[in-house]
Amino acid sequence: MIGAKFLALAVLLFQDQSSASVGFDPMSMWHSMGLPAKAVVIVLLIMSAWSIAVMIDRYIAYQAARKQSRLFAPAVAGALKEGKVDEGIAIAEQNKRSHLAKVVTAGLQEFQAHAATAAITDDDIEASKRALDRASAIVHAELKRGIPALATVGATAPFVGLFGTVLGIIHAFQGISTSHTTGLGAVAGGIAEALVTTAMGLLVAIPAVWLYNYFSSKLEAFDVEMDNSSSELIDYFLKKSGRGRK
Fold first, then answer.
1. pTM
2. Could you say which DSSP state residue 118 is in?
3. Between 95 and which of 23, 68, 172, 191 could a Cys-Cys bridge form, CB atoms 3.0 to 4.6 Å apart?
């Protein structure tokens, strides 16, 4: 219904030859907008800045985690192959930004604490497994930080823009009512509000949705890597305790 009224209004505007010339550059449209529409644009700008900050932060964190993990994985594997648990922990401490290092460190420290006191039991292995699970959950939460914000921005920005579109249409009809004419000059402010807020809503939402899907796929890959590392470390503990698979 609103769309039909807006289309009819546009037809009347282009039919009116006596209308005054109105600028549709960004600054002219901003000055012609009412306070409610300006508030909508400001909210969208805040949402955009928020999503951009999350994008930059997660990209840097994921790149660092990936880079350090590539160095950490072969180094710690070599140390553990030689039975040097202390060296494995030291290597992990040197790669603190690696998601794998954080998980492996927790498992190795738990295993080392039990191995130093007595013979390793099934309960000790289970305690190490729980330590790995806890560390994986913590690292997952750290890696996921800010990602839900992208989903929120992507889902709500179009509706915020649509709200601004409705305000623009209302403003346009108020202009007609006030000036008793359908000329372009009477409704230019309303048209500006509708165009700017609609475009802003889409401009904010589309990148947020794209980046949310991208980072979610990266997070799933990190989870798989942590699960595999935890499983391999448990196999190592079992072999060290003499209960490995024959």
1. 0.75
2. S
3. 68
